[in-house]
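User: I've been trying to design a sequence by hand for this structure and keep getting stuck. Would you show me what you'd pick, starting by listing the structure so we're on the same page?

Assistant: Good idea, let's start from the same input. This is the structure you sent:
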């Protein structure tokens, strides 16, 4: 028996070594996570939703919605539908009265098993999506594939995800895990150009959906959670891929590459870090898409956390410009202003999603965003003053410092709060809609020396962790997680109705002129609620977690709704299913 067990153990070791050289450490973590999460999700319950209505809201004419040209009114041409990131659709064939008749029309199964978080586009009669390494075009009514283009990347990226593409003037644009921006022909999928804006050897990546306007593509660099990685944003010529400007979102250091003309940032930002010599300024990645004010040509960039994530004592100060919305001149990349949500973040509470540029019913011009700290913010887009800060999920121990001698429990956790899909604004009801993740974490710190001794380019959180799945802290049992959809008055910051689900809400949230709000949760439950009251109108169960985009558009004369489902990530104990686009519509 002993010899048998030794033989089995030896075969397992040989298999692990072979897998290591075949798929690397990230691949092993991904494979181990899939095996573990298959078991963890085996008894996941059916979806439930509870709605509390404080005050039903009557709809009015959407006078304050961002205008959409008539020829694209039925499309979804950008990650958050328009460059102002409002996510509202003026389509009204699907209404609160008939949404209960929605039927699944078709499914496009990518065949991939990965972190499927794409925000689909629909433009010019084609539905566009991305996986970690592919971009594809399908028929928006039948899901028949038009074309699919694979990109061969030599990368060992730990986060194998791509959150979507941008469209402009017959071209599509996407980022890659090895730090490039790629352009494709919209009709054929032919690669037109490729430009490197990041260094994959340092674990830098471009995984957020770019935006494109006025002949320019805007894309950001992420993974500031790794030692020495500094976030930045680049503007590229849409026709050629030439870098027009590059702006570092945390202070640029000696030896940092300059890939294009540098946008100017305040020189005194470096004094807000105060790091020891062997603790490099790190962080400030941009995890999601951007917002553009077409009237002022101002680019709004959501900026991520500082690193080491959980150890502010090694980077004393405000750590500019992390945990901020930074406004840049879209033509030059030069700094205009910023709004920072935290003076010194130690929870990994980045500004993780795109701010919506909104003119409210009362005429306030605000930036509305809901980052990972569990609050909804409204910031005056002209004066930069805070209008309100309203809680939209469970918040616990926000002021308790982490330590090396005890475990600290906090909410939202490091994978909680508002994630990559941002707020939505419904001008008919004047409501800001926020999908939130109620999932708490616990952290115990490493010693300062252990943190300082971490290798350059390594994951740099600062917590005690043997299990790689706990790299971001130890999450509560997933039986204790939940999701929230808050509907908040855009002027007062008071919630009018709220819905609680038994799974986190990470998907895109989409309100329509038909009086319906669409969203999904990580249990694969796809919902339609009444926009004015939150009343549940319809739901469907989809195989796989819904953590990508939810969009609506017109195809063949009728309104459709498409959802990206099948998110698989070692951190999320969800149903393990393939990545797919599912299209719903009414019977003709």
């Amino acid at each position: 028996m002993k010899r048998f067990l030794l033989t089995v153990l030896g075969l397992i070791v040989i298999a692990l070594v072979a897998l290591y050289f075949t798929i690397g450490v990230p691949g092993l973590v991904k494979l181990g996570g899939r095996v573990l999460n298959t078991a963890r999700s085996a008894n996941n319950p059916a979806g439930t939703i509870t709605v509390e209505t404080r005050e039903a809201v009557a709809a009015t004419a959407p006078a304050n919605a961002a205008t959409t040209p008539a020829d694209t009114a039925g499309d979804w041409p950008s990650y958050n539908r328009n460059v102002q990131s409002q996510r509202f659709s003026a389509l009204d064939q699907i209404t609160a009265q008939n949404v209960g008749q929605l039927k699944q029309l078709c499914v496009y199964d990518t065949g991939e098993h990965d972190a499927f978080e794409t925000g689909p586009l629909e433009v010019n009669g084609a539905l566009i999506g991305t996986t970690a390494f592919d971009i594809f075009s399908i028929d928006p009514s039948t899901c028949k594939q038009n074309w699919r283009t694979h990109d061969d990347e030599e990368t060992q990226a730990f986060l194998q995800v791509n959150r979507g593409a941008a469209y402009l003037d017959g071209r599509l644009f996407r980022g890659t895990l090895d730090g490039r921006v790629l352009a494709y022909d919209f009709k054929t999928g032919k690669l037109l150009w490729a430009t490197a804006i990041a260094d994959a050897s340092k674990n830098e990546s471009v995984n957020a959906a770019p935006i494109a306007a006025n002949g320019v593509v805007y894309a950001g660099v992420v993974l500031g959670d790794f030692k020495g990685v500094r976030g930045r944003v680049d503007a590229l010529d849409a026709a050629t891929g030439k870098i027009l400007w590059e702006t570092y979102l945390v202070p640029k250091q000696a030896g940092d590459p300059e890939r294009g003309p540098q946008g100017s940032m305040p020189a005194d930002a470096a004094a807000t870090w105060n790091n020891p010599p062997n603790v490099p300024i790190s962080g400030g990645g941009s995890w999601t898409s951007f917002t553009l004010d077409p009237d002022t040509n101002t680019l709004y960039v959501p900026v991520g956390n500082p690193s080491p994530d959980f150890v502010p004592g090694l980077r004393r100060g405000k750590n500019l410009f992390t945990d901020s919305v930074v406004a840049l001149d879209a033509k030059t990349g030069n700094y205009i202003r910023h709004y920072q949500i935290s003076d010194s973040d130690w929870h990994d509470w980045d500004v993780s999603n795109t701010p919506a540029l909104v003119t409210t019913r009362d005429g306030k011009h605000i930036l509305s965003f809901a980052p990972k700290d569990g609050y909804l913010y409204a910031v005056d887009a002209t004066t930069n003053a805070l209008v309100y800060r309203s809680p939209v999920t469970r918040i616990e121990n926000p002021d308790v410092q982490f330590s090396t001698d005890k475990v600290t429990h906090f909410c939202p956790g490091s994978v909680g709060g508002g994630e990559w899909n941002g707020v939505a604004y419904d001008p008919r009801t004047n409501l800001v809609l926020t999908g939130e993740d109620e999932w708490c974490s616990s952290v115990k710190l490493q010693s300062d020396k252990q943190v300082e001794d971490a290798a350059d380019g390594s994951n740099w959180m600062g917590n005690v962790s043997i299990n790689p799945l706990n790299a971001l802290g130890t999450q509560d049992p997933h039986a204790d997680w939940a999701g929230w959809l808050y509907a908040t008055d855009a002027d007062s910051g008071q919630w009018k109705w709220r819905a609680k689900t038994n799974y986190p809400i990470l998907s895109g949230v989409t309100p329509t002129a038909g009086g319906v709000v669409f969203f999904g949760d990580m249990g694969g439950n796809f919902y339609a609620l009444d926009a004015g009251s939150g009343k549940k109108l319809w739901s469907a169960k989809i195989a796989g977690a819904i953590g990508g985009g939810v969009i609506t558009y017109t195809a063949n004369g009728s309104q459709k709704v498409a959802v990206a489902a099948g998110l698989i990530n070692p951190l999320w104990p969800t149903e393990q299913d393939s990545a797919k686009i599912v299209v719903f519509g009414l019977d003709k």
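That's my pick for every position. To get oriented when you compare it with your attempt: The helical segments are 2-40, 448-452. The chain has one domain: 41-66+76-549+564-585.
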